[in-house]
Each structure stands twice: as C-alpha cells, then as structure tokens.
Amino acid sequence: MERYSRQKELVCQECLQNSSLLIAGVGGLGGFSSLYLALAGVGTIILVDQDVVETSNLNRQVL
C-alpha cells in the first residue's frame, strides 16, 4: 500500500480496491480513463466496446 500513500488522505484505498467499474466505449476517452483508473487502484474494471479496431484508429488507442 506504500504505492498509494499520497492519495490515502483523499480516498479510502480499500474502498477503491474492492470496487467494480464498467466503462462503455474504450475509444479515445474511455481508453485513457480506464488506464488512469487502473493506476489509481480500482479493483475490477470491465471494458465494453462494440466497435471493431481499424488500422486508421490505432494511433488513438492506448490499450
């Protein structure tokens, strides 16, 4: 838990670790949001996207 020592004052880290989250759409905004939420320590993240990955969109994909 030393990794999250800075944010302990702001958020209950155990609450984040035990939480579940669904992100609908992992394009530009959803991809970055899911990455930062994972780094913050959210326990379970479910990603849902109906699009098909196209070569022209790969420059915007972080996942």
Task: Report on the architecture of this protein.
With 63 residues, the chain is α+β, with helices and mostly antiparallel strands. A two-stranded parallel sheet has the order 1-2. It has helices spanning 13-17, 28-40; strands at 20-24, 44-48. The model has no long low-confidence stretch (mean pLDDT 83). The longest helix is centred in the middle third of the chain and has 13 residues, at 28-40. The two termini are 25 Å apart. The chain is elongated. It contains two helices and two strands, in the order αβαβ.
Order of helices and strands: HEHE
| Classification by helices and strands | alpha+beta
Strand count, sense and barrel status of the largest sheet are: 2 strands, parallel
How are the strands of the biggest sheet laid out side by side?
A: 1-2
How many helical elements? 2
Rounded to an integer in angstroms, the radius of gyration calculated over CA atoms is: 14 Å
Question: Can you tell me the residue ranges where pLDDT is under 50 for at least 5 consecutive residues?
Answer: none
Relative helix content: 25-40%
Mean pLDDT: 83
Shape: elongated
Strand portion, in percent? Answer: 15-25%
How far apart are the termini? 25 Å
Beta strand count: 2
